[in-house]
Structure formats: structure tokens, C-alpha cells
Amino acid sequence: MISLYGKLSIFTGNAHPQFAGAIAECIGIPLGKSDVFEFSNENIFVRINDLVREQDVFVVQSLCSPVSKSILELLIMIDALKRASAARITAVVPYYAYGRTDKKDQPRVPITGRLLADMITVAGADRVLSMDLHAGQIQGFFSIPFDELTAINIMTDYFRKKDLDDLVVVAPDLGSAKKARNFAERVGAPLAVIEKRRSGNDSRTQTLNVIGHVAGRQAIVVDDEIDTASSMMDACRILQHSGISEIYICCTHPVLSGPAIERLRNSSVKEVVVTDTVPLPEEKRLNKIVVLSVAPLFAETIRRIHDGGSVGALFEN
How far apart are CA 199 and CA 209, in angstroms? Predict the structure, then answer.
């Protein structure tokens, strides 16, 4: 297929430049040159140093820590590229922040996930590419094309090669049940679900019980992200009390904020399998953490978007 747009270009902010570089390397092109920095007054400045007129531009920026700065860098880069006459701008957001604020579940609270979508659209993005959203309806917050990738194939391939015995896939809450079910189907294992309730606006949860037979089995607990790991540790504790022999954790986005690393370090979890959608600094790289790269998947998707190919066909097998 021949692209309707000009040359393919990839730019990145400061959130996760290594990931953007890996994508560009897979495609076989250099990263676009730009200056993205913060003045002493905390104002962010962006200058695009390559010609992008009539080009098909992809801006890679995970909305990870520092979240507000990462968001603003993305918005300003989109605006700069729009004013530089780029033909099409795709916001590549491997990790979409504020995904948990996808509905009004209390009086007088915002739907920040929708607000962020409006900001990206108004800034000038023509389409968005992300991975494993916390809530699927976030796609509907956008009035522009939105492609959601999933790391499920990469992760299930990893676990199939481990050839674990008497496996059960566990959803840490009811909201994760669909994703965990798809995971279980691909590894040929039964599904169990942990029923819990969240208390207030913090990370405290009240775990209730396990739905499904888990005693004596090896468990893979599947979720889209690990933040403070409080809920995940609650899930692991109830699984241990239910007679699980070994616990593996699998998540796409290793946010790992606050006490998460200490909780994982001190836990009996055998392995934590994550992807590289957000950067994992050296001090967070525990021996039990395995990082699988999804950069090749993003690279192939970007190539297909540029050439007018099918993105959905990547996940038909």
C-alpha cells in the first residue's frame, strides 16, 4: 500500500525516550530532532528541529511520572507540529494516565479521562494509539480515530514457554475479569476472580473472597497496571490463604509508585512480568521483575497506520 501522507517521522518528549528510540530502530528510521525542556519558571518549551511539512508524524509519549509534565509536553509538541504544517499527527500514548477516572462514581467529581482526551484532540492530534487501557470506554472519549493495542499475545507467549503445571489465571477484581478471561483462554487455563470492594479515594480495599477453584495450583494474577501494589498484595494474600502453590503477577504498565517496590520485594510472588510502556529505573528493577518489550508491536502498528494497513489483523490469531 502507498501512504496518503508524506514521510514517516517519530518524535518523543522526555517521558520515555528509550521506548521511542526502540520503536524508531525497529522501523529503521532515526528519531526526529527536537528540543523539549523546562525553563526555571517551570514553563515548558518545545522546538521541532526537523522539517515536518506534509509529513506523517507520530509523537511517542507515555503519560507517566511526572504525569502533569508528561501531559503538557505531549500537548505542546502536538501544537508545535501542527504549526509546523505536519500533514497528520498521531499521539502515541503507550500508558494513558487518569484511566481510572473514566466515570462519575461519586458526587461532584471530574471525569479526568475525558478531559485529557479533549485536551489531546484540541491540541491538534489527528489520531491516538495506546495500549491496554484501564477502561475500554476511554476510546469513546475521543472524536478522532483511536487504536488500542494489547500486550496479551506477548505475555501469554512468555507464560506458555514456561510450561507451568496446573495453572489458574486470576482476575484481581471483577473489572479485570474480561482481560483475565482472554488471557486464560490463550494459555489454556481456568479463570478465578477475586471479589473486593474499594474504600474511599485511597488505595485501601476490602477483599472478600475467591470465585473459582485455586487450591494447589500455580496462579497468574493479571491486571492492566500495578500502581502502589496494595490491591495486588491483597489478592496475593487471599490466594495464599486459599492454598495456591506459586504466584506470578502479570501487568502491562509497571507504574510502581510509592511503596510498590518494597511490597513486591517483601512478597512471596515468584515473578512479576511487565512491559516497557513506562520506564523502569534501575532502583526498581528487582530480580523477580521481567520486562517484555512491546516496542516491536508499536513499530509494526505505526508502519501499518502509515501505509494504510490493518491494525486489527495483528491480533486475529
Answer: 16
pLDDT digits (tens, 9 = 90+) for 270-282: 999 999 999 999 9
What residue type is 95 in one-letter code? Y
Its pTM surpasses 0.85: yes
Q: Say whether 152-292 and 8-150+295-315 share the same fold.
A: yes
Amino acid 252 reads: T
CATH code for the structural domain at 8-150+295-315? 3.40.50.2020
Tell me how far apart the alpha carbons of residues 199 and 234 are, in angstroms, rounded to a whole number.
14
* CB contact set of 127 (below 8 Å; sequence gap of 6+): 88, 90, 91, 144, 145, 146, 147, 305
288 tagged catalytic? no
The active-site residue, picked from 196, 270, 284, 288, is 196
Q: Which CATH number fits domain 152-292: 3.40.50.970, 3.40.50.2020, 2.40.160.40, 3.20.20.370?
A: 3.40.50.2020
